[in-house]
Every structure is written in structure tokens, then in C-alpha cells.
Amino acid sequence: MKTAERILACVGLLSLCFIFINALQDAPTDENFEKKLINDYNVYALQVPENLNFAGEAMPLSNPDILERMDRELLVNTYWQSNGLLMFKRAKKYFPIIEPILAKHGVPDDFKYLAVIESGLTNAVSPAGARGVWQIMKTTGRENGLEVNTNVDERYHLEKATEVACKYLIRAKENLGSWTLAAAAYNAGTAGVSRRLKEQNVTDYYDLLLGEETGRYLFRIVALKEILSNPGKYGFNFREKDLYTNIPTYKVEVDTAVTDFSKFAEKFGINYKILKLHNPWLREKHLNNKSRKLYHIDIPKEGYYQ
């Protein structure tokens, strides 16, 4: 073999070795994941996708104002990395509860992202008095059949609160004519959005001049939808085991008063803290229940809190 051929052969062999070693380094191992965590940090301008929509209603991205506002929310939510990762983790836990309730009522699946921007999928408390994942006001909750008092507040009951959100959104859609406007109404009120449409003589959310919060509202929802639907595209790296999971529970019927939930919890092999984690709508350490109402209390299955 000629010298030049030998050199080429050696170079080829070394190249193959390098590719093999590099492949091993890129394997999804915990060790490699930690290396990437330290070394892979870059900031890029983002390309706004051409065809974004909310509930099947297209965003008019050919409008430069709309494009810039969408770009802002994609940037803010992509590079607020800690918050973004928490949204991925919580979404895995809570979306499976929210999605079938939306589907049952015929509310588009995109509205689960409304809950994300309302509360970060936590039982948040707003300065205005809204509560829970869906940030429901006291009056709205009571008008839609929720029990709301110092002893029991079902705005913190995720399934029941999602039902109320669906009812509100359906009515808003009927009154305003689109799901986009219904989403805006969730933030500013149906009457408020309707009044602004008439005052400004327009029919579309994207043509309205609104205050800061409501003006950003739909853009934030669509940004979270885009990012949570495409984690790799926006630089979010995680494994399935990094995400939160919902603990399986079974329901216990209670139609009497409960004088001490600590003792009640002990009967099921858990403590008061665990009971409250699964039933945040129980606001005090006892249950009055003078009317002998039937409640369903979630108890985690055995083996998850040992």
C-alpha cells in the first residue's frame, strides 16, 4: 500500500472512532445529561412559526404588530427556563385531568393552556380574590354551583373548577362569536370585551386596543401552547422521569361532619398534610357539613407516600 493510501486509511479509521466516541457521549445517559446541563447554554433569536392558531382560529401574523407581540411572548417564555420546565412537569400531572373535561363539554383542547397562564397550574391566589388553577372569583364559583366558604372552597377542586371554566367559556363564545374572544373574556369579562368591541367598532380580538394584561393574554396562551407542544424546538431537555405524575387515588364518601381531619387521615394510613395535598378544597381542619351534604374525599392508594 502506498504511503498516501496508508495515511488516508488511518484518517478514515480515526474518523470512524471519533464518530463512535461522539455517539456514545451523546447517548441519553444521566452522566451525559449533566454535562449538557453545564455546557449547552445559548441564546438565539426565535423564528415565529408561520401558522399559529388558537382553537383553530388563525393568528394574523402578516400584521407586523401581531408578529412582534407574538415574538415577545415566545422569547419571554422560552428564556424563562425555570418556569418553562415547571410548566412541562406540571402539565404531565394535570393535563390528563383537564383534557377529558374540556372534551366532554366541546371546549377546544387549547384552553388547557389558558389554565397554564392563569395559575401556572397551581392553586394560586390573586390580589383580586380569584382562586385555584382556573382563577375563579367567588361570585362566579357560587353562580355555577360551587360551594365557596371558609370551610369548603371548591374553586380549589380541579375537576369541579374545570367544569365551571367550561360553562363560562361556552357562554362567552355564544355571546362574542369566537373562541379567541371567549378566551379574552375569561381575563377581562364578557361585558368588558363586548363593550370594547363596540367602542372601537371592530369584531376581532387582534384588532382591539386593550390594556397590557388582556392585550398580551392570547399571545401568552399561544406561546405556551407552541413551546409545550415542541420542547426540543425551544431548547427544553428533559426525560420522562423528570416530569411530575399524578398519584392514583380512590374516593371516600362522607355525608356527616368531620371533627378532626388529622384523625380521619390516620384511618387511611396517611397524615393531614397528604390529605390536604389531594383535597385542597377542604380549607379547615374539620368539616362542618350541617346539611349532611355528600362529599367525595380523595385518598391516595397505598405505597406512594412511604
TrEMBL record:
InterPro entries for the chain: Lysozyme-like_dom_sf, Transglycosylase_SLT_dom_1
Signal peptide boundaries: 1-23
Domain Transglycosylase SLT, first and last residues per copy: 100-204
Keywords: Signal
Pfam family, one: SLT
Coiled-coil stretches noted in the UniProt entry, renumbered to this chain: none
PANTHER family: MEMBRANE-BOUND LYTIC MUREIN TRANSGLYCOSYLASE C, SOLUBLE LYTIC MUREIN TRANSGLYCOSYLASE-RELATED
Family: Belongs to the transglycosylase Slt family.
Protein name: Lytic transglycosylase domain-containing protein
